[in-house]
Amino acid sequence: MRQFQLPYIVAIRSNHGVLMPKGQRVRYNRWHAYDQPLAEHPTQRRYIREIIFGQRRPIRYYQITKGSTDNPDSWFIRANLAGDVLLSVGRQYTLRTWIEYGFKQVKNELGWHDYRLTEYSSIERWWELVFSAYLLVSLHADAFQHSPQLKGENATVSSSPLLPFNQHPFWELGMTWKSALNNLRLLVQPYCCWGWLEP
Q1: Is this model's pTM higher than 0.70 or not?
Q2: Following DSSP, what letter does each residue of 103-151 receive, concatenated?
Q3: Boundaries of domain holding 41
Q4: How does pLDDT run across 78-114, given as a tens digit for each residue?
Q5: Total domains present in the chain
Q6: Is 4 within a domain?
Q7: Is residue 2 part of a domain?
Q8: For the chain, give me the number of helices (H) and strands (E)?
């Protein structure tokens, strides 16, 4: 990420080491309260403070806790975001949970949630397949959602380019990722069956 100059927020361990010149010290700034929106629960009050190793650098470190500043259950993050991001970096980091949760649901739908590999080259190849499949379905989901034939006021079922596929009893008319995956499976199924029948 540093090589491509991408902004990032990552989790680090509490014993994460940072090199400092001799004579400099670690400074823990005061806590600041902020409200963290939650999906199905009331807004939660959390606290964040910046930890400065020697002098402030482009890479900044933060400690976040919830409930109370005396709560030992806290986590540490590192970010290279510019500007005054003290009260926003915590909310942005929380998006990671939703991204991981959403991607876990995707892997479960693809039936790949229990797969295990140990060799690095195999792991690398495996993730290429996972992301390729994810991209394929996502692009089709987006195409279904923005199809002009399905949005026009005078559009009819007969004008849809998906005929005769959308006449299948298991075809889903939704615009979600799961619907796109289901419909792509229906499209690919005849080709798979033909491959099984070929000698």
Answers
A1: no
A2: HHHHHHHHT-TT----SHHHHHHHHHHHHHHHHHHHHHHHHHHT-GGGT
A3: 9-108
A4: 998 888 888 888 888 877 777 666 667 766 766 665 5
A5: 2
A6: no
A7: no
A8: 3, 6
